[in-house]
Amino acid sequence: MKKLAIKYISIILFIIILISISLFYLSEISISKDLNDLISMFWKILVNPIFKIGNTSISILNIIIAILIFSAGFIIGKLYKKNIKKITHKYTSINRSTLTIISNIGYYLIIIFAFFIGLNILGINLSSIALIAGALSVGIGFGLQNVVSNFISGIILMFEHSIKIGDYIELSDGIKGRVKDIRMRSITITTNSNIDIIIPNQYFIQNNVINWTMEDMIRRFEIPFGVAYGTDPQKVITVIEEAVKKSNFPDVIDTPDKKTRVVMTGFGDSSINFELFVWIQGPEISYPKRTKSRFLILIYKTLNENNIEIPFPQRDLHVRSIDEDIIKKLNITES
């Protein structure tokens, strides 16, 4: 915020310096003139038109005032967004996404309002702007198609509340992260590696997005594992389910409708395949690899403690016949 204020203050100082230089230049030209003449001449320079837009004459003074209004609009807009975000810390009952909507819409309305005031100061007729906008609508439609689409998509997402700040989402290409910011053009998500990814809003409208925390912080994890052939499947199911119950993990849910289960899923090349279904509640659902690792370690220790063999890939080779030339070569080698 300080950098923004310094930026606009620098612009204002630059304008003041230009005015000072102009005054100095005028005084050098004719030192004999009194102060009233200099002020009068300088004022004429400021108010005299330097160019026209249609029938409207534009002077230096109009431009200076318009720039100041534009600058003030940006500064007020930034201050508005900053103060709105502070409300999050005071009123926890207000949804962060609602605050984002209010801050973004208010920010753009302030800038648009300042823009039209500046145009009015310049003396530009807004009806002529409408005509120009109509003439450029075709070009804007093609050239800014994606920008407009992202803008509309952002408004839809903000009011629909399907994605909110703080949600943990998974994109169709496998990227997972927590929603950090929702803007009119894009959404920023932060991955578990602390990498910020900026994604256009249009993507969320046109593609499938998994919201892990849309309604609650509960998710079922499916953790596959295998045991060697010859192992009693019922024993495997029993020991793993008992191990999860005795683990005392505080985030594990075990209710009639969300029960920990172990199911046999098939016969693999080297193993009998099982899958552990376990329900997790809390922030750990945002760290799927870490959560799965915890249960894989538990499964590994439990199988070892119960002398249940964990298989590894292997193949049996059965030789039905051997070519006679190969037998002769083998005999020669042995002799």
From TrEMBL:
<feature type="domain" description="Mechanosensitive ion channel MscS C-terminal">
    <location>
        <begin position="222"/>
        <end position="310"/>
    </location>
</feature>
<dbReference type="InterPro" id="IPR006685">
    <property type="entry name" value="MscS_channel_2nd"/>
</dbReference>
<keyword id="KW-1133">Transmembrane helix</keyword>
<feature type="transmembrane region" description="Helical">
    <location>
        <begin position="60"/>
        <end position="80"/>
    </location>
</feature>
<dbReference type="GO" id="GO:0008381">
    <property type="term" value="F:mechanosensitive monoatomic ion channel activity"/>
</dbReference>
<feature type="domain" description="Mechanosensitive ion channel MscS">
    <location>
        <begin position="146"/>
        <end position="213"/>
    </location>
</feature>
<dbReference type="InterPro" id="IPR010920">
    <property type="entry name" value="LSM_dom_sf"/>
</dbReference>
<dbReference type="InterPro" id="IPR052702">
    <property type="entry name" value="MscS-like_channel"/>
</dbReference>
<dbReference type="Pfam" id="PF21082">
    <property type="entry name" value="MS_channel_3rd"/>
</dbReference>
<protein>
    <submittedName>
        <fullName>Mechanosensitive ion channel-like protein</fullName>
    </submittedName>
</protein>
<keyword id="KW-0472">Membrane</keyword>
<feature type="transmembrane region" description="Helical">
    <location>
        <begin position="6"/>
        <end position="26"/>
    </location>
</feature>
<dbReference type="Pfam" id="PF00924">
    <property type="entry name" value="MS_channel_2nd"/>
</dbReference>
<keyword id="KW-1003">Cell membrane</keyword>
<dbReference type="InterPro" id="IPR011014">
    <property type="entry name" value="MscS_channel_TM-2"/>
</dbReference>
<keyword id="KW-0812">Transmembrane</keyword>
<feature type="transmembrane region" description="Helical">
    <location>
        <begin position="101"/>
        <end position="123"/>
    </location>
</feature>
<dbReference type="InterPro" id="IPR023408">
    <property type="entry name" value="MscS_beta-dom_sf"/>
</dbReference>
<dbReference type="InterPro" id="IPR049278">
    <property type="entry name" value="MS_channel_C"/>
</dbReference>
<dbReference type="GO" id="GO:0005886">
    <property type="term" value="C:plasma membrane"/>
</dbReference>
<comment type="similarity">
    <text>Belongs to the MscS (TC 1.A.23) family.</text>
</comment>
<dbReference type="InterPro" id="IPR011066">
    <property type="entry name" value="MscS_channel_C_sf"/>
</dbReference>
<feature type="transmembrane region" description="Helical">
    <location>
        <begin position="129"/>
        <end position="159"/>
    </location>
</feature>
